[in-house]
Amino acid sequence: MHTNSNESAENYLETILILSREHPVVRAVDIANELDFKKSSVSVAMKKLREGGHIEVSPEGYITLTRSGREIADRIYERHQLISTWLIRLGVDPDTAAADACRMEHVISSESFEAIKRHIR
């Protein structure tokens, strides 16, 4: 499946958010391990995210989200959690629900997402 660069950036930001909750520091190698990507691919992506103002990288290589990066990550993470929960409630296997949520979270419109949110709360 081909991912566009926006979806890829959102996935990286979401991964940084999740890792930052589990680890004291997040490094490119942690992201590579989590996503099972080559460290070189992650380094290229981190450079783009840094240039886009979504992350900051310390001299030690510790990655933190900026305000804009955090907003995107929070939005994608919320979508993931909600869509995944909704699919599981509909009887979808949890692993399948998580995989589908990963794809849906990037392409669903805000309008549709808000409608699902209203419906399941």
Automatic annotation (TrEMBL):
Organism domain of life: Bacteria
> Transcription: is it a keyword of this entry?
yes
Q: Which GO terms describe its molecular function?
A: DNA binding; DNA-binding transcription factor activity; protein dimerization activity; transition metal ion binding
InterPro entries (alphabetical): DtxR_MntR_Metal-Reg (IPR050536), Fe_dep_repressor (IPR001367), Fe_dep_repressor_sf (IPR036421), HTH_DTXR (IPR022687), Iron_dep_repressor (IPR022689), WH-like_DNA-bd_sf (IPR036388), WH_DNA-bd_sf (IPR036390)
Q: Does Transcription show up as a keyword for this record?
A: yes
The HTH dtxR-type domain covers which part of the protein? 1-66
Against PROSITE patterns, the record matches this protein to: HTH_DTXR
Annotated Pfam families: Fe_dep_repr_C, Fe_dep_repress
TM annotation in the entry:
none
Which residues belong to the signal peptide in this entry? none
Keywords from the UniProt entry: DNA-binding, Transcription, Transcription regulation
The entry's family comment says: Belongs to the DtxR/MntR family.
Protein name, UniProt field: Metal-dependent transcriptional regulator
Q: Which organism is it from?
A: Mordavella massiliensis
